[in-house]
Design brief:
Layout (H helix, E strand, L loop, with lengths): L25 E3 L14 H9 L4 E8 L5 E3 L5 H7 L12 H5 L2 E2 L2 E2 L1 E2 H10 L4 E5 L8 H11 L4 H4 L2 E5 L2 H10 L4 E5 L9 H10 L4 E5 L5 H9 L3 E5 L4 H10 L3 E4 L19 H23 L7 E14 L3 H6 L5 H4 L3 E14 L3 E5 L6 H9 L6 E6 L3 E4 L12 H11 L4 H15 L14 H12 L6 E5 L7 H15 L5 E5 L3 H7 L2 E6 L2 E7 H11 L2 H7 L1
Parallel strand pairs: 1-12, 2-7, 7-8, 8-9, 9-10, 10-11, 11-12, 15-19, 15-20, 17-18, 18-19
Antiparallel strand pairs: 2-3, 3-6, 4-5, 13-14, 13-16, 20-21
Length: 555
């Protein structure tokens, strides 16, 4: 369906599909008062914010020394002095027990368990969990602590927007758990210079918005964020006139210490005339455009480092009449074995692929494309010649292969992880991401023999894309599942490819997909390389060799 969308805007763009804290024009920041500022995380502060009528609340969370999530404004020397926390770091690490003994302005701090109870009691509220007070090296552990602290309650987790300070912190959090909503806070101020690159990153990944200081929120910044179809939140202002000006400019939400909803003017939704399906389609078009711009930039980001090299590679197979002959051939003489019919799937194949390249392998069925990729992944070995691969490979090949039908989907995640040489800790970090991506519901804990072929493929795809590969190998794996899942798969591949250091090797019969993901094409015919050039030239060569170009012209 083609949507008649008005000019690009991020205001309420995707309707309830992306209903988040941004749909509430006001978010209470800090949740409390101390020396005239509201930023104390405790039960009294929560009640005070709720009494103002806000429907979105921000809470700072931090990882304690004993691995617990705590509601903390900050533990640095300046924050401790400002808040009056009487704790000397030389006394030992700040554990949860140590933190909960502190008094801030005469009021007790709040445990994460207390926050959990508040979230349960107010199911209609949105919560902004600010991870920015922790270092990026602890982001993964903090995310795990938050998920455990919320008792893996999906209803609560789906109403949390996680605020991080940079892309690496986002990756650390998302490695532990796929939260539904993410936001990157622009801080410190000088980071505004890199806003364009950050917006592109957000559009490529599962990050739906940015938070920026009200003083930095110029019309130019709003226009840049809108163009990418992202949401925008401004912090922190208690000036009602400024808040209304920002909302009229296109900002989605204001973070404030003291404003109430009554202080804000009603903002009209420019997409009110669109159905949710049209909103969602328009957002996908915006994200796809941003993704294509990012992929186009990759052409100039290719390094000189060779990560894949084929040096006069042959891969031959013997053709037997049946399995009995295959077995008996082990005992035949060398002369008799010489009479076996042989076929070269790859024939004197040589090429180099550099780090950061996106390369499509084109050719008819049986041209040797999949055989070449299987040798890159280590599934097959060359009969003659050398294949050199430098980097961690993640393969989207035969997605349903390698599973045990008697094990559950979750158990198969661990089995495949162990087979790949991953540690138990690495698999535990990967498991929730695989489960969330595959979206199999209660079937994840059912034996695989109860799965349909599509469900097995979803589990295989989820496993393959839940790692951070240096080389991504994709062999016609994007045809799994329904239309919505295919879009999800395409988006995930765009996310992986957003990293300029990732090399992508792609086998497809779709020229559209090849053009989107690749800048170079290699055409194979009966195992031999017959063309190697830019993706557009390679596609034109392949289509001409197959008579497809003439067919198109005749039509």
């Amino acid at each position: 369906m083609s949507s008649k969308a008005p000019a690009i805007s991020s205001q309420s763009l995707a309707g309830s599909h992306l209903a988040t804290v941004y749909d509430e024009p006001l978010c209470a920041r800090g949740l409390g008062e101390f020396e005239g500022k509201y930023y104390l995380n405790n039960a009294d502060a929560l009640a005070q914010s709720l009494s103002r009528g806000v429907r979105a609340l921000e809470v700072d969370v931090r990882l304690s020394a004993d691995g617990k999530a705590c509601c903390s404004y900050g533990w640095g020397p300046e924050a401790r002095k400002l808040l009056g926390i009487e704790w000397d770091p030389t006394q030992g690490p700040m554990t949860e027990a140590t933190f909960l003994k502190q008094k801030v302005g005469g009021r007790p701090t709040m445990s994460f368990e207390r926050l959990y109870r508040h979230m349960k009691e107010n199911p209609e509220l949105w919560w902004v969990l600010d991870f920015g007070k922790t270092g990026k090296e602890n982001a993964t552990h903090l995310a795990n602590a938050v998920v455990e602290g919320l008792h893996k309650d999906k209803a609560l987790l789906s109403r949390c927007l996680v605020q991080v300070r940079n892309a690496s912190m986002y990756r650390g959090v998302d490695r532990a758990y796929h939260f539904s909503h993410y936001q990157i806070m622009l801080w410190p101020r000088e980071r505004i210079d890199g806003l364009g690159r950050l917006i592109t990153y957000c559009a490529d990944y599962n990050i739906e918005g940015l938070a920026i200081e009200a003083s930095q929120c110029s019309e130019e910044v709003v226009a840049m964020v809108r163009k990418a179809g992202l949401k925008l939140q401004c912090f922190a202002t208690d000036d009602a006139e400024l808040a209304n000006t920002l909302l009229a400019r296109g900002v989605n939400s204001i973070c404030s210490f003291s404003l109430s909803p009554e202080d804000l003017n009603e903002v009209q939704d420019p997409y009110a005339g669109l159905t949710e399906e049209q909103r969602w389609e328009h957002l996908n078009e915006l994200r796809a455009t941003i993704g294509k711009e990012k992929l186009a930039q990759r052409k100039t980001a290719i390094s000189d480092e060779v990560v894949v090299e084929f040096d006069h590679v042959y891969k031959s197979y013997n053709l037997y009449k049946n399995d009995r002959e295959r077995l008996l051939s082990l005992f035949w003489s060398k002369k008799k074995r010489a009479g076996i019919t042989r076929i070269d799937a790859n024939n004197d194949l040589s090429f180099q692929i550099r780090r950061g390249e996106g390369v499509a392998f084109l050719g008819h069925n049986g041209a040797g494309k999949s055989t070449a990729l299987k040798m890159i992944t280590g599934v097959l070995f060359p009969t003659k010649g050398t294949v050199t691969v430098s980097g961690e490979v993640s393969a989207l090949l035969e997605l349903r292969a390698g599973f045990n039908a008697n094990l559950t989907g979750r158990e198969n995640i661990y089995m495949r992880g162990y087979a790949m040489g991953l540690t138990e800790e690495q698999i535990k970090l990967m498991e929730p991401k695989v489960v969330e991506f595959a979206d199999l519901g209660h079937y994840i804990d059912q034996p695989l023999r109860n799965y349909s072929s599509g469900m097995k493929a979803r589990l295989g795809f989820g496993f393959a894309v839940s790692s951070d590969p240096e080389i991504l190998v994709v062999d016609e794996a994007l045809s799994v599942g329904d239309k919505k899942f295919k879009q999800k798969c395409m988006q995930r591949i765009r996310q992986i490819m957003a990293d300029d250091d990732v090399t992508v090797l792609f086998v497809t019969h779709s020229s559209t997909a090849a053009r989107e993901f690749c800048s170079r094409g290699i055409v194979l015919d009966h195992g031999t390389k017959v063309y190697d050039g830019t993706i557009n030239d390679a596609i034109a060569f392949y289509e001409a060799s197959q008579g497809l170009a003439d067919t198109k012209e005749s039509k």
